[in-house]
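Repro case for the chain-ordering regression, as requested:
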Amino acid sequence: MISATLRRCGVRLAVAAALSLYLGGARADELKVTIDNFTFAPAELKVKVGDTVTWSNHDDIPHTVVSAGKFRSKALDTDDTFSFTFTTAGEYPFFCSLHPHMTGTIKVE
Amino acid sequence: MSAHDHDNHGPIDPETGLTRRKVLECMTWAGTGILWTVSGGVPRSLGLVGSALAAEPTGMTFLQISDSHVGFDKPANPNALGTLEEAIARIKAMPAKPSFMIHTGDISHLSKASEFDDAERIISQAKLDVHYVPGEHDFLDEEIKFYKDRYGKGTRGAGYYSFDANGVHFIGLVNVVDLKAGGLGNLGAEQLEWLEQDLKGRSKSTPIVVFAHIPLWTVYPEWGWGTEDGARALEYLKGFGSVTVLNGHIHQVMQKVEGNVTFHTARSTAFPQPAPGTAPSPGPMKVADDRLRSMLGIASVNFKRGDERLAIIDTPLQG
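-- result from build under test --
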């Protein structure tokens, strides 16, 4: 159920992203953070207020996406995704609570 | 594995000049080699394979299994439940029944109730008392209650506790909760305080066995293989004549002796992970099907009164 919900969110985002691409935006690729080999990529991502970022886990091991006091994903199994919409400007450092050496930052302008 | 099977080595790695297969063989061999020096003269035939059981261990023997990852079904081992079953079958076949078993965490892969149920169904077949500590994979359910409901009885905090057996003091610690960004495993102030109290007033001649999921010593911080405040725990253990630290998490045998403390990590029963720094990440390592079981296994620990150290014998599922 959880992953289905997450996937649905992912699909919705993909549609939104495709739409913005169609309208001349080129942000579709910029709003994704992928997890491969226990690494968030990109490690730092700049977005605008109102943007939604989607993390997707491509590893064989579950990971989480946690920003203390801001957002916390459930454990993401292989190919699961998590999305969060940023409504306030600022810096959002995040990490994997299972493998805390995995860190990244979203900068919201 | 067959150490003599050197045919068909596969492509040669341009950097090391070794084939991948050769590197893996050396790695396995090195792991075994280290163990020999620590097993303190206890012959390998005391292990679980059971060929030529020359002598029965005279002291207390207990077993360590780790990282069962029940529910894992990716290419590195599509049937983690099956290999756990093989490990338990080996334990059942032991001619001398061990006193009990410890499991150093990651019982399940995703903390699903069905995974814990499957693990219990298989592990209970060994008909041994099992003392568990959780791995990070055991706390993934939404309410974080499945592990505690099943294994947390009589424990404190997230599941730490101690007990005595045959004159040895056993301490099960939890270092997989409240991990901090950029950090390693974590025990936390409350647990450390409990540990200090638990050890206070205890005779320094009492052999101590500490077990926890993530290595208590720093194996490889780049991959998070260590415990942030592990040194504080070790501080409390100073002065004890014999301290053995048993961990899992890294899915390979690693050993270190420092003064009175022997550190040891056990193999997984599910899938191997690469040696530190030898791969882009610590993720599951896919090896040839016929090699998998040589990289999975269990550990047997023998304690004989008067011996300086506990003898640890690692036995792969095969080879």
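Ordering looks correct now. Helices of chain A lie at 2-22.
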